């Protein structure tokens, strides 16, 4: 098991390095430091101003290989090495306005985390329970109504839930604020975004889990459990759900990054100052420092999530332990 985890960890580090290389190429080789300087300073800027901007940001060195440097300096005295070192130390530089990006990310982490952790738990538990109830009453009108409801939920865009929820619950009923965030009373501002995100994920998740449960119900071990006199509810909870944990864990791992990186669209529409809204600000302002930092953090969290899923597999899948 230890060898399996170490092997997966090595794969994760290799993937992270590959993502960093691709990201660096997109930000520096395709969009050169000179292009970034012209974007920030203006198209009519002088060559001296461009060189000064590159020196201030540490971009006045070769990108990958410094032929004029001695020894290892050929590799270390480069923009790629400096950027890799800064990313590994979680030093992301400053925004176009001079704000420290690392500080801004720490300051904005709490709103994203409060939304993400609750959405993660509810978006996993609610579809699992909903699908179990549908399978328990399978081939009945209740099951058919549940399938129809899920199809309707899948057919509606998340943007509709956001706009309709803000108008109905926030404006007409005035049960929650329409937008904003307050650290003194965060629950009032987060209820509506959480409900919107859970509703948006309920349709596809519950339909997937229902299909998985129905497939498991046709297997031999289920017939054996029924022959032993177990009730249908006991069969579902003790056998079907247990043997369906692998796809459930996989889906949970795919949703785990939102706990740390936030939800871009939802935070923007609800004016929540989280990491998702921070990413949108960087894109709209063409602030490559913010975008590059958020891409790196998002990559780290996503790769770590799938690494955690691989580790959880060792507990829910005996075949992994046997390997």
Descriptive report:
There is one protein chain. The chain contains 17 helices and no strands. It is mainly alpha-helical and 323 residues long. Helix 1 packs antiparallel against helix 16, helix 2 (33-41) packs across helix 3 and helix 12 runs antiparallel to helix 16 (288-316). The longest helix is centred in the middle third of the chain and has 36 residues, at 101-136.
Record the SSE blueprint.
Blueprint lengths: L1 H29 L2 H9 L5 H10 L16 H4 L2 H10 L12 H36 L4 H15 L2 H15 L13 H32 L2 H8 L4 H12 L1 H11 L2 H4 L2 H6 L5 H10 L3 H29 L1 H5 L1
Helix pairs in contact: 1-16, 2-3, 6-9, 6-12, 7-9, 8-9, 10-11, 12-16, 15-16
Helix content: over 70%
Number of continuous helical runs: 17
Question: Which architecture of the largest domain would the CATH scheme give at its second level?
Answer: Orthogonal Bundle
Number of domains: 2
What is the rounded Rg?
A: 25 Å
Strand content: under 5%
- Which fold name is given in CATH as the topology of the largest domain? MetI-like fold
End-to-end Cα distance: 8 Å
Strand count, sense and closure of the main sheet? Answer: none
What is the assigned CATH homologous superfamily of the largest domain? MetI-like
Q: What class would the helix/strand composition place it in?
A: mainly alpha
Mean pLDDT: 85
Identify the overall geometry. flat
Listing every helix as H and every strand as E from the N terminus to the C terminus, the arrangement reads: HHHHHHHHHHHHHHHHH
Number of strands: 0
Low-pLDDT runs: none
């Amino acid at each position: 098991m230890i060898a399996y985890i170490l092997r997966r960890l090595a794969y994760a580090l290799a993937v992270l390095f590959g993502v960093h290389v691709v990201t660096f190429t997109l930000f520096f080789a395709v969009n050169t430091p000179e292009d970034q300087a012209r974007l920030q300073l203006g198209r009519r800027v002088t060559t001296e101003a461009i060189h000064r901007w590159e020196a201030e940001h540490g971009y006045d060195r070769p990108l990958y290989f410094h032929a004029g440097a001695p020894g290892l300096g050929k590799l270390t005295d480069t923009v790629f090495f400096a950027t890799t070192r800064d990313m590994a130390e979680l030093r992301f530089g400053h925004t176009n306005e001079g704000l420290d990006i690392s500080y801004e990310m720490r300051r904005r982490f709490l709103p994203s985390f409060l939304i993400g952790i609750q959405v993660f738990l509810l978006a996993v538990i609610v579809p699992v329970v909903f699908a179990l109830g549908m399978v328990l009453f399978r081939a009945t009108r209740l099951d058919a109504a549940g399938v129809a409801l899920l199809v309707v939920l899948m057919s509606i865009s998340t943007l509709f839930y956001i706009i309709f929820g803000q108008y109905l619950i926030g404006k007409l009923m005035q049960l929650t604020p329409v937008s904003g965030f307050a650290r003194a009373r965060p629950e009032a501002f987060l209820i509506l975004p959480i409900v919107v995100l859970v509703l948006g994920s309920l349709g596809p998740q519950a339909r997937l889990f229902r299909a998985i449960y129905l497939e498991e119900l046709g297997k031999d071990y289920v017939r054996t459990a029924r022959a032993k006199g177990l009730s249908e509810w006991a069969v579902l909870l003790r056998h079907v759900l247990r043997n369906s944990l692998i796809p459930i864990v996989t889906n949970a791992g795919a949703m785990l990054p939102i706990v740390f990186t936030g939800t871009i669209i939802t935070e923007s529409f609800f004016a929540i100052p989280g990491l998702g809204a921070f990413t949108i600000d960087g894109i709209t302002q063409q602030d490559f420092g913010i975008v590059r930092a958020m891409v790196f953090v998002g990559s780290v969290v996503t790769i770590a999530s799938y690494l955690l899923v691989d580790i959880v597999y060792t507990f829910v899948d005996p075949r992994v332990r046997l390997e």
